[in-house]
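Slide 14.
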Amino acid sequence: MTGLRVSGLEGRVALVTGAAGGIGGAIVETLLQQGARVVAADLAEPTINRAYPIAMDVADEAAVDRGFATVERELGPVQVLVLNAGVFVIEDFEGLSLQSWQRTIDINLTGAYLCARRALPAMREAGWGRVVAIGSSAGKTGGSKAMAAYAASKAGVMALAKSIASEYAKHGVTSNALAPSLIDTPMLAGIADLASRIPVGRLGRPQDVADLVTFLASEHAGYITGEVVDLNGGFLID
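Slide 15: predicted structure.
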């Protein structure tokens, strides 16, 4: 969000899961630019200047509890939670093993649940909080390729964000999800001519995602909750 300032994030403790990836790193950097105290969480400690790194397996309940306890001890309660950790696997449905299905659900959906469950009590007590979940357009459409586990997990995380919104709005906590599609990350490498499929004529950038996350976490979005916001250059208009 270069050159643009939002209000309400300076000094806030923000935790971003999946921070080592392109989208996660852009979210961390953008929140830092807005003055937030950002925790960058991933399986291994990410190296991002000025961020507080922690190693945390979001699919492991004990690891999530340890990670949050460390953040609370060092920085204070998490006030902004960005649920970005995820895996993306393309597998034909009949070849999709239970192990692969379970791993995808564990990381993409159960991991989001574990982190949100750990963060929300402090947000409720404080009377203020922001939850932003990174879903996917595949969670709406089922995906354009063989990605049943991924699509199901992302549909679940977007529904989870809505459920949190309805339960916690009265406590000053907003919860929203993004449904990005065709963002220029390594997962799209080798797929030819994607930009021609997008009405605006280009792939999305990690910064596009980071800017929207930052807006939804700010005071400007205090009246927005329970939404799934499309971010796809017109690729999916529903």
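Speaker note: The helical segments are 22-33, 61-74, 98-126, 138-141, 148-168, 206-217.
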